């Protein structure tokens, strides 16, 4: 059936601010769905309160509403536009819950809007734990023994009937919020209370715990003809008991028998058909008994899920794009495969490679947090790697994490305490994968590791083989490693850094040079959805070590944009927004735009965003070889946060041109000591400071500049390691801790300006002119990280004289640092005195916020300036903000109820929202203003 031509206008509901459990994968899904509908000539309106996303950009939708995700906001849009249909399946649980609320209020009926992509009854069936359990029983799909409870007494009765261990699963929550395991009767009351309070309907499922069973996810698509295809089967490396968002996952499934796989497929299709008559995407989760392959259903999500983005990137099949077209009436066989351009979308993807996803954690931001993984998701991001084998992909994923690891071990960071290792295996945290390898190195038998972890033996054998390879490598020196064995090491994912460490007294560059002498080169294979059965038209590549290279470098002028890697606190979706606009601007300027990134959740790793995509770790060895193959005009590093900036020095040493501000000037701004010397030369006020490399030097500096002092390392993002201390004892502890975690780093010690206000500016410089794109006044005082503070654009309480000084200092610094592109400066304001705290000659987390508030494509402008294609004078910039825009930080402390929620110089927020007010009499603003007064008076 062709598309429903009566649908001319669609509203897409977004997911709101980034929180743990609902991150930028929904920015990817919403953006893809919007562009898919616009291709059909449909007018697309989007509601989302997140300013850092591509989804809320005018390149994506016809009408963008940066409004709170409430029914009042929905009705405001419905009154302005003649909306025919609403698509709520692209914004995670937030969008689905809002759709239900609007339905219950009769909004869709009142404005004659149909819900597409799902039906409300299906949402109710899947989110109501008892309805879901009963439906599975009715259709003959296995479920764990369970009972529903709406009260404390009902929960106690259910526990008594089922027996321990148990799982508490609250209804209508996201990422396992409020859920958990209960192993002992003594712990049940507290867990039940927590679950009942977490559920908006005060309802929990008390369920038999199938700990140690395997876990699988299937991503499905269904059309109006009831055709269903399985896009991807994903196997969890970790067994049941760890939230799938916190688990390492692998595609395709590695340990399933064909019989079990076919049975699981049939059950997934039956489940999708049973929950309602709708067309779109669906995610189904199963648990499998490793003893007899008994299958039970865990849950079904009738929407694009967190795993949909992963499955899309893993297969090359754009799930959200196709799901959007199915929602407006198309059938699968009427749509084209976006990769091959010749086969239909009714063609299930086939993988001739393996993908591995590893979650990224940020426990360092939540001191005292319980790091043990369970049913409540705690990861802040993830990486994905592609390899010809599981172990190659696993090592590449470890290199992508940006936690200082060069692969799976073999990098000098191994644990050696057997008791600690075994405890880690039994009580999993984010590092368990590495501790499995450590256990093998210490000689722990495979069966002991399997019993402690309950991880399938097949995976453990793969890791154990690495230990045997490393033992063999130690028999050689660099100059006598046999070529075949060297090739085997590279095919097993070993980085040159790991090989150098294993050999000892050898550098990474020496290993690199030696393997080049032996003709062992990285080649690139295409992601084509069909295991090379049909030619692919989309340039989407991963690396491996074989003979044939499928990535042919063109003779066009090229620009490489380095991505920001995994999301984490301090470096999130705003940098992906910047990278995407950098790609678009480079293409507009006539360059072949090449993207390098490893984050499956993001828009930048969409196969049709860049001219060429390398889904590779943003890790030196990988980046270097892509540059050698492509020979670009230059590399853009200032859009990808600290990830890309860390590459700048090595790019400089290799003779690769850095597009925009030079490495020397970026380094000058990053080196806190040299930067303060520059401020002194420019006669720009700054807090008294000193630089130390030891605790003894730090004590001397602190007593010279005067307490309280702000202690911070150079070259970090998101306030990592920053603290305010008031005496020698606290200072000594802080410095010793920093030098332990960041050895060799310089420690900057500033006099802390108490009772000071904080403000910041963002600007663009083309080498001659400087354009201040925005100045913001913070609500929280100096001492609270800017990412954790509400910020008001433009300033509301700073005198004109203060604003003039901020502008003067911004222009002075932009010119002194010879900035080409973006510059963010943070100020402390005390009375009429303005002090510069720091300057960052790169994209900042506030640029997307300013761009959305003023409705100006600032990243595009900055990129064209960086490329030297345009001067600032070429642009006519018209700001459209009437009133004020407020950036509101959003936190995920509910995931870590045991930690201190006190804000300080180290960033803790996971996302942000934007709110517009017409004037300063707005009640919301008055509350913030009173809060600011209270902060300043209380300091």
UniProtKB/TrEMBL annotation:
It holds the Pfam family CPSase_L_D3. Its EC number is 6.3.5.5. One of its GO terms (biological process) is pyrimidine nucleotide biosynthetic process. It catalyses: hydrogencarbonate + L-glutamine + 2 ATP + H2O = carbamoyl phosphate + L-glutamate + 2 ADP + phosphate + 2 H(+); hydrogencarbonate + NH4(+) + 2 ATP = carbamoyl phosphate + 2 ADP + phosphate + 2 H(+). SUPFAM superfamilies: Carbamoyl phosphate synthetase, large subunit connection domain, Glutathione synthetase ATP-binding domain-like, PreATP-grasp domain. The keyword Metal-binding applies. It comes from the Bacteria. Keywords: Amino-acid biosynthesis, Arginine biosynthesis, ATP-binding, Ligase, Magnesium, Manganese, Metal-binding, Nucleotide-binding, Pyrimidine biosynthesis, Repeat. One of its GO terms (cellular component) is cytoplasm. The keyword Cytoplasm does not apply. GO terms for molecular function: ATP binding; carbamoyl-phosphate synthase (ammonia) activity; carbamoyl-phosphate synthase (glutamine-hydrolyzing) activity; metal ion binding. Pathway: Pyrimidine metabolism; UMP biosynthesis via de novo pathway; (S)-dihydroorotate from bicarbonate: step 1/3; Amino-acid biosynthesis; L-arginine biosynthesis; carbamoyl phosphate from bicarbonate: step 1/1. Belongs to the CarB family. Composed of two chains; the small (or glutamine) chain promotes the hydrolysis of glutamine to ammonia, which is used by the large (or ammonia) chain to synthesize carbamoyl phosphate. Tetramer of heterodimers (alpha,beta)4. Large subunit of the glutamine-dependent carbamoyl phosphate synthetase (CPSase). CPSase catalyzes the formation of carbamoyl phosphate from the ammonia moiety of glutamine, carbonate, and phosphate donated by ATP, constituting the first step of 2 biosynthetic pathways, one leading to arginine and/or urea and the other to pyrimidine nucleotides. This is Carbamoyl-phosphate synthase large subunit.
């Amino acid at each position: 059936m062709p598309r429903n031509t009566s649908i001319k206008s669609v509203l897409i509901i977004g997911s709101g601010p980034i929180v743990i459990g609902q991150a930028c994968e929904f920015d990817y899904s919403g953006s893809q769905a919007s562009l898919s509908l616009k291709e059909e000539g449909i007018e697309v309106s989007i509601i989302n309160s997140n300013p850092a996303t591509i989804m809320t950009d005018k390149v994506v939708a016809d009408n963008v509403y940066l409004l709170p995700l409430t029914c009042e906001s929905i009705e405001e849009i419905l009154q302005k536009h003649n909306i025919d249909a609403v698509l709520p399946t692209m914004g995670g649980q937030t969008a689905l819950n809002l759709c239900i609320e609007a339905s219950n209020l009769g909004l869709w009926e009142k404005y004659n809007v149909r819900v597409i992509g799902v039906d409300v009854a299906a949402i109710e069936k899947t989110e109501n734990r008892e309805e879901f359990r009963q439906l599975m029983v009715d259709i003959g799909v296995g479920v764990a023994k369970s009972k529903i409870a709406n009260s404390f007494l009902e929960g106690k009765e259910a526990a008594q009937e089922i027996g321990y261990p148990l799982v508490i699963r609250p209804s209508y929550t996201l990422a396992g919020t409020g859920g958990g395991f209960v192993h002992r009767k003594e712990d049940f009351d507290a867990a039940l209370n927590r679950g009942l309070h977490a559920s908006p309907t005060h309802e929990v499922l008390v369920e038999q715990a199938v700990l140690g069973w395997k876990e699988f996810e299937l991503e499905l698509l269904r059309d109006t003809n009831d055709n269903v295809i399985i896009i991807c089967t994903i196997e969890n490396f970790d067994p049941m008991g760890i939230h799938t968002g916190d688990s390492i996952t692998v595609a395709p499934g590695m340990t399933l028998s064909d019989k079990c796989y076919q049975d699981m497929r049939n059950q997934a299709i039956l489940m999708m058909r049973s929950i309602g008559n709708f067309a779109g995407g669906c995610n189904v989760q199963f648990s499998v008994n490793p003893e007899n392959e008994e299958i039970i259903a865990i849950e079904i999500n009738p929407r694009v899920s967190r795993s949909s983005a992963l499955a899309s990137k893993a297969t090359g099949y754009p799930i959200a794009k196709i799901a959007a077209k199915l929602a407006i009436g198309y059938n699968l066989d009427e749509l084209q495969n976006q990769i091959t351009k010749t086969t239909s979308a009714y063609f299930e993807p086939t993988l001739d490679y393996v993908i591995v996803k590893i979650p990224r954690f940020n426990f360092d931001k939540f001191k005292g947090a319980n790091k043990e993984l369970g049913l409540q998701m705690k990861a802040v991001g993830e990486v994905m790697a592609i390899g010809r084998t599981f172990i190659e992909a696993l090592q590449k994923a470890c290199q992508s994490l940006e936690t200082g690891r060069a692969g799976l071990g073999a990098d000098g960071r191994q644990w050696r305490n057997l008791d600690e290792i075994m405890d880690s295996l039994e009580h999993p945290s984010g590092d368990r994968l590495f501790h499995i390898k450590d256990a093998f190195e210490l000689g722990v038998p495979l069966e002991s590791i399997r019993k402690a972890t309950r991880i399938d033996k097949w995976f453990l054998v793969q890791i154990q083989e690495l230990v045997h390879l490393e033992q063999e490598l130690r028999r050689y020196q660099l100059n006598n490693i046999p070529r075949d064995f060297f090739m085997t090491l590279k095919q097993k994912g070993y980085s040159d850094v790991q090989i150098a460490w294993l050999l000892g007294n050898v550098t990474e560059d020496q290993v690199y040079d030696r393997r080049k002498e032996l003709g062992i080169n990285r080649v690139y294979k295409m992601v084509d959805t069909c295991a090379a059965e049909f030619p692919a038209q989309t340039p989407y590549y991963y690396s491996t070590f074989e003979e044939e290279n499928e990535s042919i470098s063109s003779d066009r002028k090229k620009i490489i944009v380095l991505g920001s890697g995994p999301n984490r606190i301090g470096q999130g979706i705003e940098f992906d927004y910047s990278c995407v606009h950098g790609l678009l601007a480079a293409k507009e300027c006539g360059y072949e735009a090449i993207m390098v990134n490893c984050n499956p959740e993001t828009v930048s790793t969409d196969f049709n965003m860049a001219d060429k995509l390398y889904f590779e770790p943003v890790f030196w060895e990988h980046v270097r070889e892509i540059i050698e193959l492509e020979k670009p005009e230059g590399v853009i590093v200032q859009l990808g946060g600290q990830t890309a900036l860390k590459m700048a020095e090595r790019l400089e040493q290799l003779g690769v041109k850095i597009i925009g501000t030079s490495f020397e000037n970026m380094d000058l701004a990053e080196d806190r000591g040299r930067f303060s010397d520059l401020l002194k030369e420019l006669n720009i006020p700054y807090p008294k400071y000193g630089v130390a490399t030891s605790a003894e030097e730090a004590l001397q500096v602190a007593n010279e500049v005067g307490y309280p002092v702000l202690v911070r390392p150079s070259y970090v993002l998101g306030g990592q390691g920053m603290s305010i201390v008031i005496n020698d004892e606290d200072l000594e502890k802080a410095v010793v801790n920093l030098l332990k975690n960041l050895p060799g780093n310089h420690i900057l010690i500033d006099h802390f300006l108490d009772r000071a206000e904080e403000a910041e500016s963002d600007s663009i410089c083309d080498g001659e002119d400087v354009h201040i794109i925005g100045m913001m006044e913070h609500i929280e005082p100096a001492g609270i990280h800017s990412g954790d503070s509400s910020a008001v654009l433009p300033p509301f309480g700073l005198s004109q004289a203060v604003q003039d000084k901020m502008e003067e200092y911004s222009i002075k610094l932009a010119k002194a640092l010879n900035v080409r592109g973006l510059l963010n400066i943070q100020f402390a304001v005390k009375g009429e005195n303005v002090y510069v705290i720091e300057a960052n000659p790169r994209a900042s987390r506030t640029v997307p916020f300013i761009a959305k508030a003023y409705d100006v494509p600032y990243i595009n402008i900055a990129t064209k300036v960086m490329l030297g294609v345009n001067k600032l004078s070429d642009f006519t910039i018209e700001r459209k903000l009437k009133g004020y825009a407020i950036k509101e930080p959003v936190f995920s402390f509910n995931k870590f109820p045991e930690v201190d929620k006190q804000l300080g110089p180290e960033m803790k927020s996971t996302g942000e929202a934007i709110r517009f007010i017409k004037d300063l009499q707005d009640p919301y603003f008055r509350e913030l203003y009173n809060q600011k007064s209270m902060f300043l008076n209380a300091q």
